[in-house]
Amino acid sequence: MKKQFIPYIKVFLFILISYLLSSLIIAGAMSLIQFSYYSYHLLICMISYLIIISASFIFFKLNKEKALINASIFALIYALLLSILFIQHWHLSLLLKPLLFLFLNIILIYAKKKQH
Fold first, then answer.
1. What is the span of the domain harbouring residue 50?
2. Model-level pTM?
């Protein structure tokens, strides 16, 4: 049972640490260079989607058995966490990250089956 939760914990920690580091880097850059709101928002969106893409690759590498079920569960948990954390500022784009995560894992699973 503990072995099954390790990929979830590792990927959640990767996402959390990546978001924290990117936020610190962007905050440091904002104090030195003035960005417009549009470029700041675009940079944050691009970094967050890159983090989700790399997290899906990491989750696929760590998860060997029942990959589709585990990816679906992870995407559902991630969507619930985003909904809980951003309940006052909820919008449809919050669901795009878990859907992207699930979609990339489905593509990776299909590509792995095609190789064999």
1. 2-115
2. 0.86
